Amino acid sequence: MSLKPIERKSLSDAVFDQLSDAIVRGRMAPGSALPSERTLCEMLQVNRGAIREALKRLSQAGLINIQHGGGTTVLDFKRTGNLDLLSQLLYDSDGTIDLKVARSVMEMRAALGPDIARLCARRSTPEIGARLLSLVSAMEGASADLLTLQELAIQFWDVLVRGAENIAYELAFNSLRGTYDALREVLVEVLADELRDRSSYRAIAEAVARGDDLSATHVSRALMEKGTQAIFQVLAALEDVGAGSGEDPASEPATDIGDGPGIGPGIGLAEGHKEDEELS
Fold first, then answer.
1. Rounded Cα distance, 18 and 264, in Å
2. Whole-structure pTM value
3. Taking residues 114-130, what's their average pLDDT?
4. What is the signed CA dihedral for 117, 107, 26, 19, rounded to 10 degrees?
5. Domain span(s) for CATH 1.20.120.530 in the chain
6. How many whole angstroms separate alpha carbon 138 and alpha carbon 16?
């Protein structure tokens, strides 16, 4: 039997998770007013400090607009949010993967990868080239162990993105990696052909080492295309299954704020909230 450790959250984390989920799942529509702090305290059975901290985080995430003296309104996160929301959007409330979000992540990965390799080759140093070649040697010695190859590939791209010296790409990579980490075990078999293509990884490393940005771009694009197409095939198959059952596997019907897991003292807030408060 496989068990996972119980996640212990502070009150503000639990409030943030519940409110942000209600917003991104459409249970709180853009432009709607958020209940007052006092009302939220009563609904969620937590103290005002936890509410204020959660609201601050929601504002920083681009999910709400706080107007002092004028109330708090829900924003359209697709226009005001940032990449940090990807990990949350990746899973529906029932724990299933949102296929549209998964496709979006892979499309962004395929778009950024070649240009990251290009910039890294253009700005490469001997140290970066040596680190990439060392990782490729480790991949070549990893035999058919896909999990090891996957970890080494992540390290390989981490070196590339740091070597690109582009802060926007670095931050985007951090967010994508957080989302990718949540899917590691699911993706490892799907990406098998890409992970086993050690010759392409070596070609990229050698191109970066000699400052050949055109070759680095071309080879990295071809390499990532292998994984991208494999994942798209899996996503298409899952969508066909959903279509055959009459359900849309990539969408969830919007409900009122009070329906389902909307705002309320559940989802880890009522049960044990006193214990959590002592930990916070």
1. 9
2. 0.75
3. 97
4. -30
5. 86-244
6. 42
Identify the helix (H) or strand (E) that includes residue 73: strand 71-74
Identity of the highest mean pLDDT range in 140-154, 206-220, 235-249: 206-220
Tell me yes or no: is domain 86-244 CATH 3.40.50.150: no
Is beta strand 64-67 parallel, antiparallel or unpaired with respect to 71-74?
antiparallel
CATH number for domain 9-81, candidates 1.10.10.10, 3.40.50.300, 3.40.50.970, 3.40.190.10 = 1.10.10.10
pLDDT tens-place string over residues 128-149: 999 999 999 999 998 778 999 9
Tokens of 51: 């509410």
Location of each CATH 1.10.10.10 domain in the chain: 9-81
The rounded distance, in Å, linking the Cα atoms of 23 and 158 is 32
How far apart, in whole angstroms, are the C-alpha atoms of residue 258 and residue 261?
A: 8
Q: How far is CA 103 from the centre of its chain?
A: 12
Instruction: Find where tokens 């706080």 sit.
Output: 66
